[in-house]
Design brief:
The chain has 4 helices and 4 strands, in the order ααααββββ. The protein has helices spanning 2-36, 41-54, 57-63, 68-73; strands spanning 84-90, 94-100, 109-116, 122-130.
């Protein structure tokens, strides 16, 4: 009987961890899309509602288009054009993606690293641009 209970607990715990991992992947992808998938400045502005739902207040304050530093270093690069996210790979801790935009070359790769708190909100992030090195010297 003890073995059966132990097996049930292990199966339940493993299944629960897989569900949590899948939720984190979805949260990461949804956040990246809310930040960089838009037709125009109006849609980008309305996407901030989703960003607020997916992040803690501190992270939202860093990511919002109302943050002047963010607007200057990120959103002005789009020149009021549209942008579409192409997810390359996502895990429970990062989303690797490229952007389809007239302002940014599609072969540029970006990575959004993140962590999710117990409330299901992104509580930490780091954005980087990936630079691919030569795969072989031959």
């Amino acid at each position: 009987m003890v073995y059966v209970i132990a097996i049930v607990v292990v199966v339940f715990t493993t299944r629960h961890q897989k569900i949590i991992a899948k939720q984190k992947i979805t949260i990461g992808e949804d956040l990246v899309k809310a930040l960089y998938d838009f037709k125009d400045a109006y849609q980008l502005d309305s996407n901030m509602v989703t960003v607020k739902e997916l992040t803690t207040d501190a992270i939202f304050n860093d990511l919002t288009i109302d943050n002047e530093q963010r607007a200057l270093t990120t959103y002005l690069k789009f020149n009021s054009g549209c942008s579409t996210v192409k997810v390359i790979k996502s895990t429970e801790s990062y989303v690797m993606y490229s952007l389809v935009s007239e302002s940014i070359a599609e072969d540029r790769i970006f990575v959004f690293f993140f962590d999710v708190d117990n409330d299901g909100k992104v509580c930490w992030f780091k954005e980087v641009e990936g630079i691919e090195f030569v795969n072989s010297l031959y």
